[in-house]
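Structural prep section.
Before we set up the soaks we want a predicted structure of the protein with DGJ in place, mainly to decide which crystallisation condition to try first. Input record follows.
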Amino acid sequence: MIIVQDGCFALQTPHTSYIFRKDAAGNLLHLYYGEKIEIEEEGLAKVCEIMAPVITNQNGCSLIADTAQPNLCLDDVCLEISSRGKGDMREPYVELVLADGSSTSDFRYENYRIEESLLTPEGLPGAYEEKGNGQSLVITLADRNSKVKLELVYGVMEDCDCLVRYGRLVNSGEETVTVNRLMSMQLDMEAGVLKITDFHGDWAREMAKNETILRQGKYVNDTSVGFSSNRANPLFIWADTETTQEYGDCYAVNLLYSGNHRESAQAGGHGKMRILAGMNPDYLCWQLEAGEAFCSPQAVLTYSHQGYQGVSGQLHYFVREHIVRGEWKHKERPILINSWEAMYFDVQEKKILKLARTAANAGMELFVLDDGWFGKRNSDASSLGDWYDNKEKLPTGLAGLSEKIHKLGLKFGIWVEPEMVSEDSDLYRKHPDWAVRIPGQEHALGRNQMVLDLTREEVRNYIIESMSDVFFRGKVDYVKWDMNRNLSDYYSQGLAPRHQGEFGHRYILGLYQVIQTLTDRFPHILFEACASGGNRFDLGMLCFMPQIWASDNTDAISRARIQNSYSYGYPQSVIAAHVSGCPNHQTLRRTPLTSRFAIASVGILGYECNLSDASMEDMEEIKVEIELYKKWRNVLQFGDWYRLYEEADKKSVYDMDVIRWNMVSADKSKAVGIMLQGEILANYSHHVFKTRGLDDAKKYHFYNRALKYDIHRMGDLINTMAPVHVKQDSLLHDAISKFIRLDGEKEDKVVSGAVMNRHGVPLAQNYAGTGYGQNTALYQDYDARIYFMEEV
Ligand code: DGJ
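Run finished without errors. Recording the tokens verbatim:
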């Protein structure tokens, strides 16, 4: 709900309040963002009066912007937005250069309006509200030094503790103005110290959680690779230094944007912090012509007094309900088999059909033909842009293959990388100017490929039409939309020199137009975004495609950490995760199949390995796992996801797990728990599984996935049980292992939600050098366990 009284504004969500007001000179003073303060409409001005800073004299070194308020120094108040040149020395929200070369702006309040819907920035994706319960507040500010107006657009959703924000500049003058920055969100707050959490990485090691205590100076999280990037995800969290997973003040911002971004936290000189988030100004220089408007991307902002978990839960809800859209929004996603790690570029119809048959027999639902199927694509050195069938590999083309896959009872999915072109391709030979490069200069290559210039209409049209043809002729049910290199040589041969500073942003606007057209044209297709894994894992892409391939690293241990980090801002329903071969192709680590399944099951499950060569035992296990996943799919994909433990919580030598999670259905009648061990600690045998989010008042049947173990697990300890001596790893040992499997521990209890949430469920004792056979749990390094909870 939006409340307005005498230049005072309050944005009320179910549990938070965001309050600001204009002062006598028309500056917007930010007053409060935090736990909800109930306010009567007629009482808002009074509340604001009490919250407003008491200013009676000038501090030393103060600059006074306006003699109408002779004691107010912009540097020493919390502002709703800031600019350069009038005494606020902190990083600004907006930065313009006028025709005379000056760069001082002075935006003052002009008016406001309320719209009974959520507004979206032109050309950019936006949060949406299906039930008509969204409202927008638009505040218009006018620059005293030019004819530029700045609209601050705030959106509130009745069911959600998140706000959305963006800025819109309108040039109502006659002269062009250069926009060097227009951020999406500014939040000034009274705080002398903050703990910042953000997520960094690179290819195959996305989302390494990073914590920084900020007391003085500035901290920046940004990217310049052209995309939201695996180096610095735009999700940015800040909290009180004492905040825990469950308790304490915690805030987060994320951007609905897929290009270069920047989030910063700056400690001002007066015990105040400024948080900014938006497009990275280092790559923006936009010519705002007379009569034109320019929007920043939408930012989502949230606050919780229930710590990191509170903020994550709110963002998960926001993404599920207000970002992901279309047919697949709430639909259970199919279990897929992907050809990439099974055969890389060597895709051949015969091999494909063998893999597909095995997958179908195991209960999988969708076959995805990854890279290698088109043009002359036998390696990453050629053919991007030539989206016609390779008849040597697919004699009956996509159409024929798709028909055969469908006949097996599987859906058919295809990999494409439409934004790219190989130098060795017919497309490049025909249209060399369509690739991003600066004429007359050497250009950088990434994975042997160049980027198509999506700022140009003819290029966008080529992508739209060539992709439509692929999707039609393949009767495609699913598309993996990949993108495998960063931007370089920022330049478009379709833009005048003075507009080249707009290239990075225009590329993203072009991309959004392309994917909007295609997702509208093919509403039944399930689209999965991918960018070498998580190089474009952001809310912008999620507005068009309901899931993203989270990382090319499919190792269960690495993935547990990566997915745990994503859980800070993204629900598992948008995270695609696959079970892959062993040893893993990225880390060469060996992990049990059970663990690979456990981690991949917390997300959109797929398999990406050569099932055609899998052992009978593994195939049996995979079948059981697929059945389990189908039974629990709704909770695993859409349940509320709680972090119970992560390595950063490690306080003692007894904390050995990599992660512990549980997912709880919306009605709290069902839950699934996952526990992934790190390295085993000898002689430590009592685990407790403590949940979060179950209904205290309900009783649950708590049980585990029954496991059987290969006796090789016990090594030569077999001789403590066997009547005859068995040489370890001998033929006899192998033969026994075929017939005799060891029983895993059994958990089977009825426990109340209150006991599980507060005390936890004591689990069967571990094997600790002694005790096998007494319902003991046989853990090895990297073992996982899955627990099920059903209301009784
Ligand atoms: C990068 C993706 O992340 C992989 O999953 C795979 O699709 C390859 N590209 C194919 O080239």
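Observations: The chain has 14 helices and 40 strands.
Flagged for discussion at group meeting.
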